[in-house]
Amino acid sequence: MIGICVISHGKLADGLKDSCELILGEQNHFSTVSLRDGDDFDEFKENVLNSIRELNQGDGVLVFVDLFGASPYNAVLFSLLNLNQENVLIRMITGANLPMLIDACDKRESMGLLELFDNVLQTGKEHIIGIDEKMNQS
């Protein structure tokens, strides 16, 4: 099974996991890592690395972060060398949202990591809709 790790500023990661499990039920091999005000960045990086390691069951880990280029994203980048040396396959998606997580959890046992990665990216794009645009269609 592909592991799923959501990494964010504040409580966003925990909220996304909670919402996903409300819809799909309890999820195995799914963890969150949160960066809180005052956290030491080196400890945060270590928590990210350990979380990804623990999630890997041999099929890889799909990592979601909240913002491109921010601390959660950078913590994953710092972990890449170690994970590559340990043959842990990961893919990272920025801009984590609930439709992507639901899709990933729903399909992670029937797809490989690379296929799931592509599928989840497409799902994210399809679920960003301007309400005015949708309402004005006749």
Question: What secondary-structure arrangement, pairings included, does this model have?
Answer:
Blueprint: E1 3-9, H1 12-24, E2 30-35, H2 41-55, E3 61-65, H3 71-85, E4 90-94, H4 98-107, H5 113-126, H6 131-135
Parallel strand pairs: 1-2, 1-3, 3-4
Q: How would you describe the overall organization of this protein?
A:
The chain is built from six helices and four strands; from the N terminus they run βαβαβαβααα. It has helices at about 10-25, 40-55, 70-85, 100-105, 115-125, 130-135, and strands spanning about 5-10, 30-35, 60-65, 90-95. It has a four-stranded parallel beta sheet with strand order 2-1-3-4, with helices on both faces. Helix 1 (about 10-25) links the parallel strand 1 (about 5-10) and strand 2. Helix 1 (about 10-25) crosses helix 4 (about 100-105) and helix 4 packs antiparallel against helix 5. The chain is globular, with a radius of gyration of 15 Å.
Number of helices: 6
Structural class: alpha/beta
Profile the largest sheet.
4 strands, parallel
User: How far from one another are the termini?
Assistant: 43 Å
Mean pLDDT: 96
Tell me the strand percentage band.
Answer: 15-25%
Q: Describe the oligomeric state of these chains in a short phrase.
A: single chain
**Total strand segments:** 4
Instruction: Kindly report the spatial arrangement of strands forming the biggest sheet.
Output: 2-1-3-4
C-alpha-based Rg, rounded: 15 Å
Low-confidence stretches: none
Helix content: 40-55%
- Bulk shape: globular
Order of helical and strand elements: EHEHEHEHHH
